[in-house]
Amino acid sequence: MKMRPPTWLPWLGPALAAGAGALAGRFWLEGGFWTVLIAALICGFAPIVAYRIWKRLHHRG
Question: Fewest Cβ atoms nearer than 10 Å: which of 1, 7, 25, 39?
Answer without folding.
Answer: 1
